[in-house]
């Protein structure tokens, strides 16, 4: 198993213990888990230690997780960050993504969702738990009048929607009943038309243009 240095930042000991217990009882990775009980402590650890991934709460005393996220990104820290929070409001979720978070998982989600998010983040992929995906899509109705944004076709918009769900090329192909090669062609066209280059930038583009 690959060794992973993981920092979990949350001001509730019960949450930190729950994350530790879950990660110590899985077989995908071997985690070296470090805990921070505040935003300030999290920043200090991130500055002085090499972390492979950060699991970050939003609501913490004094310095919030949002402030931690902003500070790390301003410092050009490239450590992937997973938000684990009770907040299920779409604007908050979208703000964390715009600030560069690699994933968002609700604390009430199944524990496997957090592990999936960590796994995706370590592969430089974005992940939302199923309930977060539902919240994002329920927050804004897809406006078909926007189909001509950057000359995107209906099928390309369908592919964008699946990309924002965190699906890979084969999963998108299965979902839309097309071939994997066709999906790859659509993604290249989407990247060219929207001046994007990754799942993260496509998600940000989609939010700005109210596709999700």
Written account of the structure:
It is a single chain. With 212 residues, this protein is of the alpha/beta class. It folds into 2 domains: 2-130, 3-Layer(aba) Sandwich (Rossmann fold), CATH 3.40.50; 140-208, Winged helix-like DNA-binding domain superfamily/Winged helix DNA-binding domain (Arc Repressor Mutant, subunit A, Orthogonal Bundle), CATH 1.10.10. The chain is 50% helix and 15% strand. The protein has 10 helices and 6 strands. The chain has helices spanning 13-24, 39-48, 65-74, 90-98, 111-122, 130-139, 154-164, 169-176, 180-194, 199-208, and strands at residues 2-9, 29-36, 53-56, 81-85, 103-106, 127-128. The protein has a 6-stranded parallel beta sheet, sandwiched between helices. Helix 7 (154-164) crosses helix 8 (169-176) and helix 7 (154-164) crosses helix 9 (180-194). The termini are far apart.
List its salient traits.
212 residues, alpha/beta, Rossmann fold, Arc Repressor Mutant, subunit A, six-stranded parallel sheet, 6 strands, 50% helix, globular
Layout of secondary structure:
Blueprint: E1 2-9, H1 13-24, E2 29-36, H2 39-48, E3 53-56, H3 65-74, E4 81-85, H4 90-98, E5 103-106, H5 111-122, E6 127-128, H6 130-139, H7 154-164, H8 169-176, H9 180-194, H10 199-208
Parallel strand pairs: 1-2, 1-3, 3-4, 4-5, 5-6
Helix pairs in contact: 2-3, 7-8, 7-9, 7-10, 8-9
């Amino acid at each position: 198993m690959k060794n992973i240095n993981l920092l979990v930042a949350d001001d509730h000991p019960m949450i930190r213990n729950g994350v530790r217990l879950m990660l110590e009882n899985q077989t995908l990775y071997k985690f070296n888990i470090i805990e921070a009980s505040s935003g300030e402590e999290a920043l200090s650890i991130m500055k002085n230690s090499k972390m492979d991934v950060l699991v970050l709460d939003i609501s913490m005393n004094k310095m919030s997780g949002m402030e931690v996220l902003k500070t790390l990104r301003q410092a050009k820290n490239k450590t992937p960050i997973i938000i684990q929070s009770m907040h299920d409001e779409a604007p908050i979720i979208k703000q964390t993504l715009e600030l560069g978070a690699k994933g968002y998982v609700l604390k009430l989600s199944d524990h496997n969702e957090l592990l999936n998010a960590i796994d995706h983040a370590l592969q430089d992929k974005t992940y939302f738990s199923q309930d977060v995906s539902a919240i994002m899509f329920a927050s804004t109705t897809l406006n078909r009048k926007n189909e001509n944004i950057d000359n995107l076709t209906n099928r390309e918009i369908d592919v964008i929607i699946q990309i924002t769900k965190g699906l890979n090329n084969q999963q998108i192909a299965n979902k839309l009943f097309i071939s994997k090669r066709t999906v790859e062609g659509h993604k290249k066209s989407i990247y060219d038309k929207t001046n994007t280059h990754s799942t993260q930038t496509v998600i940000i583009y989609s939010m700005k243009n109210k596709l999700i």
